[in-house]
Design brief:
The protein is of the alpha+beta class and 426 residues long. The protein folds into two domains: 230 residues, BirA Bifunctional Protein, domain 2; 90 residues, Rossmann fold. Helices cover 30% and strands 29% of the residues. The protein has twelve helices and 23 strands. The longest helix is centred in the middle third of the chain and has 21 residues. It is elongated and about 80 Å long. It starts with 30 loop residues before the first helix and ends with a helix.
């Protein structure tokens, strides 16, 4: 993409409403929103509501695709459900009333019928699956979606990590029995570990013991250690074990065979969670199957969520410096930022040819072909944070070369176009 065609602008300062928290409290607003707005990835509509601009959508889609690939590996079938939800379904599980769930956005049809805007999909999907499961032969399977959730979050001061409208990847599993669920739960957990590794959060992300509800002793949250996180967890970094606040009791500690003095308190961001639902929803909504001996039984369910937007925000919280964002390679909007300095015929030709060549090799490139000063271009390039920069100038063209610099390095080197591409691919 030619940067001269990109409609978004970078800004030197974060807008004033992003420089302080949204909820009127004192302190610094979120780093992720400040940097992402300044670099032109997102735009703020109002507190807790953001638009994704071209660069931001590219990053979001990268993260989404990594998640999708890993969901497909464990056999998930992708669907897409509506955000409009019927009150009756939610009443059956006692989750419609505002006294039970305090983050609903609700609306009405013209005839006054009440509807909810999806906070999650356990209820509608359980009902939907009743139309497709009769026999034990229909089980097991799992389905997932990338779907819009609406939550009237009370606090929304963490930029895109906690928004009032967001895409969630929600996966639901349907099994005959507890053993089936346990097996799938393990696979889903492994898939989550691979996802966080691939987006660059693996090292700092802990599979964290959390409370499990009626059907299971524990559920698990995936928590990424980060000073700006809203959650507090207790971690043993050597053993890679963590527990959250809910289960930080003497009983649980002895159950897990850990002692309190080996745990340190850390701030963290909940990037995903997995939960054994058991038969809570299938009982309430009549999702039954006939087993081998002709007996009717409730389907055993699990649910598994990740917020790609929260992941994107978390990545920015963790990977930036005083100049801007430093994207991990796997999620960067482009693989290389080709920056042209000067507009002599020789420079333009060299840079244009290189641009064509890079694209021919199937590498994603942002080409800064704008008539700006070197200082402005470098500042923008650092702010946007693409992992590798190729600079073409009078000086490099004189030697028939291009200057290659990694975002994480201070030094650069002069290479031929061919060498530069080799370097990029490794
Ligand atoms: P939290 O305790 O942080 O509010 P949650 O328990 O409500 O999270 P879930 O309902 O399990 O989260 O949602 C699954 C995933 O969706 C979370 O792990 C997170 O990645 C993401 N998520 C949840 N709420 C939001 C939000 N308001 N904005 C963006 N992503 C979110
Ligand atoms: Mg929540």
């Amino acid at each position: 993409m030619r940067q001269s065609q990109l409609f978004t602008k970078t800004r030197k300062e974060a807008p004033s409403d992003e420089a302080r928290p949204n909820d009127g409290s004192v302190g610094q607003a979120s780093k992720n929103a400040q940097l992402l707005i300044r670099a032109g990835y997102i735009q703020k509509e109002m507190a807790g509501v953001y638009d994704y601009l071209p660069l931001g959508l590219r990053v979001f889609k990268k993260i989404e695709n990594i998640i999708r690939e890993e969901m497909d590996v464990i056999g998930g079938q992708e669907i897409f459900m509506s955000s409009l939800q019927e009150k009756e379904t939610w009443e059956k599980t006692n989750r419609w009333d505002d006294s039970m769930v305090d983050i609903w956005f609700k609306t009405k049809l013209k005839n006054d019928t009440e509807l909810g805007l999806a906070i999650t999909h356990e209820e509608p999907i359980t009902r939907m699956i009743t139309k497709h499961v009769q026999s034990h032969k229909d089980l097991p399977f799992s389905v997932y979606q990338f779907q819009t959730k609406f939550r009237n979050e009370i606090r929304a001061k963490s930029g895109i990590m906690r928004t009032r409208e967001f895409i969630m990847k929600d996966l639901y599993s349907f099994d005959k029995d507890q053993e089936g669920l346990d097996e799938f739960y393990g696979k889903a957990s492994d898939a989550y570990v691979r996802i966080f590794d691939r987006v660059g959060l693996g090292e700092k992300t802990y599979k964290t013991f959390a409370s499990g509800g009626v059907f299971s002793k524990y559920s698990h949250e995936f928590q990424t250690i980060c000073d700006t996180g809203e959650d507090v967890i207790y971690v043993n970094e050597n053993k890679k074990i963590a527990i959250n606040k809910e289960v930080n009791t003497d009983e649980v500690l002895s159950d897990l065979g850990i002692s309190r003095d080996e745990l340190v308190e850390r701030k963290a961001i909940e990037v995903g969670n997995i939960f054994k639902l058991g038969t809570r929803f299938s009982d309430a909504l009549g999702l039954l199957y006939v087993d081998e001996s002709g007996e009717k039984k409730p389907v055993v369910m699990g649910s598994y969520g990740i917020g790609p937007g929260r992941l994107m925000g978390t990545i920015v919280e963790l990977y930036s410096d005083d100049k801007g964002i430093v994207w991990p390679k796997e999620v960067a909007p482009f693989a290389v930022h080709l920056v042209r300095l000067g507009d002599s015929e020789a420079v333009v030709k060299f840079a244009d040819d290189l641009y064509t060549d890079i694209r021919k090799q199937g590498v994603e490139v942002l080409y800064d072909d704008r008539p700006l000063r070197a200082g402005e271009k470098f500042a923008d390039s650092d702010l946007i944070g693409i992992p590798v920069r190729f600079v073409v100038s009078e000086k490099t063209v004189a030697e028939g070369k291009v200057e290659v610099k990694f975002r994480t390095d201070n030094d650069s080197e002069l290479l031929t176009a061919e060498q530069a591409m080799d370097k990029l691919k490794n």
